[in-house]
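Notebook p. 47: complex prediction with calcium ion.
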Amino acid sequence: MWSVDQGREYGGDRNTDPLNGDSDGDGFLDGFEAANKSAPLVANSQPNLTLEMALSDINGQPVLKFKTSPIVGGLITIEQSFDLKTWAAVMFFNGEGVAYETTLIRPPAAKSAYRLKVLDQTQ
Ligand SMILES: [Ca+2]
Ligand SMILES: [Ca+2]
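Predicted complex, structure tokens below:
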């Protein structure tokens, strides 16, 4: 018998809820989970979405380099916050199955935090 807990066959449509796009209620749609190799029926299995950052300089100008984990599908944004309460998008990209890399020239001098967010999982 097929067991969800053993993590098999989760890429297929079997046993997902046809009336609920997010069968396990973890905030990620079944299709987005399958495309990103997480289990659509296991809430604690979620797509691996990571954002690496590295501060360096080019000719004395500070630059902040970003690199994400490979993301398949979705409209993704990198958001910035100065207080960890209010977040604003600073760049957008589509999940194309490869690591997304970009550079922010002259990042703000004030302390700021960045995070990755999936805006639209259906794109
Ligand atoms: Ca889900
Ligand atoms: Ca899941």
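Notes: The chain has two domains: 1-46, 51-120. The CA atoms of residues 11 and 34 lie 5 Å apart.
Next step: compare against the earlier run before touching the bench.
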